[in-house]
Amino acid sequence: MTAVRAAVTRVRAAGRDPFAVSIVVLLLLAAAGLAGIAIGWSGAAGSLVVSVQLPYIVSGVIGGVALLGFSLGLLIIQARRHREAQRRAGFDRVVLAAADVLAAARSRS
Amino acid sequence: MSKTAASLTSLPDDADEALTPAAELAGPARRRRLDLRLPTWLKGTSPAPTFIGVAVAIAGFVLIMIAWGQVAGETQVYLQMPYLVSAGLTGLALVMVGLTIVNVAAKQRDAVDRDRQIDQLVSILGELKATMDEGGKGRRR
Fold it and tell me: pTM for the complete prediction?
């Protein structure tokens, strides 16, 4: 029971983090793209007539590849921006430390 | 207000104002010259390029939907092919172009933020140098 409660708390905390939410949404979109490709393949494989196969290829395969590429691309961008934000937060600490040194130097002179 | 906060607010936003010779060598000054030629909505701090990229990608998805509708409405392959190429593949290309625009816009925004931080640090160090110089002169007297 406590383990379930801890898991629910963890999920709620992740739900409040916009980065985690965006990663989950983008992974769901990537999964939808893969599902589209699979549906396109099964539809195209289910017919011997090319004119019947083509709509499956257009909607399933091309749409799936577009969705997969878009979501994975956004995922990479989001992960890089997150890393960059962490780096900026570290640099902000350096700037604050330098400002502290400046304030100390000003108070001495 | 703490001493640190006072030091930060008293500093110029830009390193160019504090250290002109140093800034002439650095990238931000050059970038500002380029920014002058760009409209405001295209500058690094604007979110407009990101929205434009997403809009282009959505247009790509709409084109793919149109291609699917047209291809599904035809029974002859030679009639389906033009829709596949003009709308389907163009839609795919538009999605990739949109993604590239979003990528470039995100990199540009990060670069602007990084430049701002470096400008701030350079300003603080310039002020510190000036303060130490003044202190040294006062002690010599």
Answer: 0.74
